[in-house]
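Hi support team,

I submitted a single chain yesterday and got back a structure, but I'm not sure I'm reading the token output correctly. Could someone confirm the output below corresponds to the sequence I sent? I've pasted both exactly as they appear in my results page.

Thanks,
R.
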Amino acid sequence: MPQSTMISALTPNNNDHTLHVRVGRIWESMNKKKNTLLHTNVILLDEEKNHIVATIRNNQKQIYLPLLKEHRVYSISNFKVVPGPALYRSVDREFAINFFFNTRIEEKPDTGVIPLYKFELQSFDKVKNLVGRLRCLIDVVGKVLSYGHLMKMTNGTEKMDVLLINERNEFMTITLWKVGATHFLDLLATSKDGPVFVVMTGLVAKKFSDSPSLSSTNATRCYVNIDYAPLNTLKYALRTANNETPQPLPPPTAEQFVTSTGEIFRDLSISSVLETIIPTGTQVVRCLCRAKIVAVIDKNGWYYDCCPTCARALGDLDGKFYCLACDEETPSLAQRYRIVVQIEDPSGSTTVTLFDQEAQQLVGFPLPKLLSAQGEENNKTPFPPAINDIIGKVCTFQMNITPYNIIQGCKDYDITGIFEVNDVHSQQHILSDSNHTGNPINATAYKKQKIG
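Hi R., thanks for writing in. Yes, this is the structure output for that exact sequence:
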């Protein structure tokens, strides 16, 4: 029997290596635009707790995939050691493995010397510095505080947000797309209504409204309540946070919207929104409002010219574009959605503003595509048909009420989240229900709540 090589000792241009490894996870890399399979990835882990990714090409899939099962132990020989991928690395290692035509795979007894799991963990506070950096994918651990509904976007894709908390009471929002979301929900069903501690793998860092978040990829996998040292440490830290004796923790909650702070929003009718009083010392009150879009308002068009750095509207200074927020002249400009719509429910009517992400979610097309269809003139009026098509949609709006709305009497509220109600029965219930009106928020009734 040949001597096995540790992953740390692998070198290129040498086909004589033999690995004694455990298979971690297996997943397929897809070309999203073409919806085609690129290759299959296999993570291999050795007894020194080092891991490496192996690639199985499509023409090898029927040969090698039937021989490999997750968590089992194998002897693998006659493979190629090659440079690792430049971007989207699931393992932060300079080398990777390619299976060859004569690669040999033999299952071995599991003696327990090789760990079951190995992840590329990042702490929540490091995520903000990883936005836009795609060299390595991100793995995180956390306790699930809440999760949203599986939302179907206008373009047909589905997503769900999950809110995690760590031992420092820091929050992180994870957006799971379709396959990742359904996989997570399946795992939740096995948690038996108890607390859920999770490892999420293969994520990329995003930034929305100045808050960093994480988003799933083909490589994303969720591991719930597994026996893994960092997860066990987190469990103990949260259970003993306020008491030396471990205390029981609540299960995650299902929410209409998941926020990056764990805040729970009250459900208000339009009339209650209009009558709300801003509590002393509060700059913004956030609530949910369920209503129907009845009109698109012709108010400065349906998009605006903005600073490519901060997305604020640009001013004109001596014929040049100037960003007041950045306090500098900008040589170029960008465009973002800004659509003002009238909404109504059984209690009343008001107007709200849909900015870029929420507008695109309802319209179903990125702004550049509509601008291209408008031709060279890029007129802000008349509205493209896709803009007018949002009339009649029934939605739950995550709404901001500010002193500007109250003191200035401006009934034009900013929307920071939107959930389209596609079920006909639910639409009819919302549009005929006069009992979901809630009460206006005032200084004595309003209280910011946290979950967890």
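A quick pointer for reading it: The longest strand covers residues 18-31. Let us know if anything else looks off.

Best,
Support desk
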